[in-house]
Amino acid sequence: MYHHSEHQMLLPNDFFLPFGGKLNPDNRWVVLASMIPWWKVEEAYMETLKDLTQGNQAYSVRMALGALIIKEKLGTSDRETVEQIVENPYLQYFLGLPAFTETAPFDASSMTHFRKRISREMIDQVNAWIVEDQQSQIDGDGDDDDDHHDTPSTSASSDEKEGKEDAPRTHQGKLLIDATCAPADITYPTDLKLLNEASEKLEAMIDALHGPFRGTQKKPRTYRNQARQSYLFIAKQKSPKRKKVRKAIRKQLGYVKRDLNHLEELSWPSGIERLSSKQYRELLVIQELYRQQRQMFKTKTNRIDDRIVSIHQPHVRPIVRGKAHMNVEFGAKLSMSMINGWAFLDNLQWDAYHEAADLPGAVEAYVQRAGTYPEAVLADKIYLTRENRKYCKERGIRLTGPKLGRPPKQESKEQKKIEKQDAADRNAIEGKFGEGKRTYGLGLIRACLRNTSETVISLQVLVMNLSKALREHSFFIFFMYLIQGVRCSKGYPEVA
């Protein structure tokens, strides 16, 4: 059951505080609450609910999405997020509560359901609404200033003075695009470690299926002690030789195969339904893991398609990044674009892909957001494919980077200046990645499921844009106070 609740927003002065006083309207959480179009989000949120008239009362979209934003903004756990909400009246106002309460509005376990219900596509749409609203406010402020000051984009030309209209601009602004990896919270996977974990989980499944026959039928022999000792003998060595590791992997493959055969024999009299849903999912993953490891062992290779690196999170894939400190990362690969400092999540996949294919889509998305093609696309060298060069050339877009063929013997000072400025401007998206990974948790995704991990990644991009909007709002307030002080010092009346 769900009722509309976001069509009329509560003002800070209407929020009841039992200990007296009023909320500060300039507080960051009050300002953030006014930036998010809750009524639009509610319409998209209601489409995810199965039945709007029956069942228990569902939490409002402001409660659900607001709690997730608070968690990513503060970088806390689910339990700590609920504790912060209980202690802070501003956080309760941000969640849409009418008055301060000392009881938790929801249990910490509900945060998992919030992440499942609010999809990545919904958060990306919220991000687009917020950026569009902030850009419209900036453009509106600029239109007011145009009454007194001319800018290059809005100043009248000589043709306009003669009664002629200029042709509309087809290229404006710069598009920054790059890709990175959002590592998942898993241990560094090795073949030996994965097989040992698979063996231990299979032994627990054998115990579950053999339970009804305990005392009447002999339990299958699993050699669990020998398998554990064989694993620890190699795992405790600092730098074991390749032959020893390969011998240990062969032994673990034998133990896993034996356990799988025992499970197949026990599933007929006992029934596979005695396994829990989690164990059944892990059994399917282990069967595929055994097939991959056996094939790599026979062919003496370390590569295979859709390689499983975590039994608990089988959707995670190895992403080769070629970084100096870490050649391979394990998580989701995402492509992000930036326009005037605003970040947009263009692509997110768990399988490794070539990010150069995202450039045309990012340019078309820029056209939808800005209404024009960008003057230049600032990207890494990996984006400089022939297809991308041709795509940008046909549309009159300057793609940064060296041209094909032999480099010129001498470059003009103007060309060097443009290349230096492009390199400096492109650092902004690298800084945005650093902000997300150091401040908002993009460097380690702790969600376990595939869809919830995608939700968390989109939330972090949304929170980065909200932080940018909050900084611009604070700067605007400071600028207004500064102008107010100057006017008062000169004897002018105060600005309302």
From TrEMBL:
In what ranges is there compositional bias, type Basic and acidic residues? 158-169, 408-421
**Stretches the record annotates as Disordered:** 137-175, 401-421
Taxonomically, the superkingdom here is Bacteria
The Transposase InsH N-terminal domain, residue ranges = 22-117
Question: Which ranges does the record mark as transmembrane?
Answer: none
Q: What single Pfam family name could you report for this chain, choosing any that match?
A: DDE_Tnp_1_2
Q: Give all residue intervals belonging to the Transposase DDE domain.
A: 377-466
Which InterPro entries does its entry note? Tnp_DDE_dom, Transpos_IS5-like, Transposase_InsH_N
Q: What is this protein called?
A: IS5 family transposase
Task: Name the species this protein comes from.
Answer: Salicibibacter kimchii
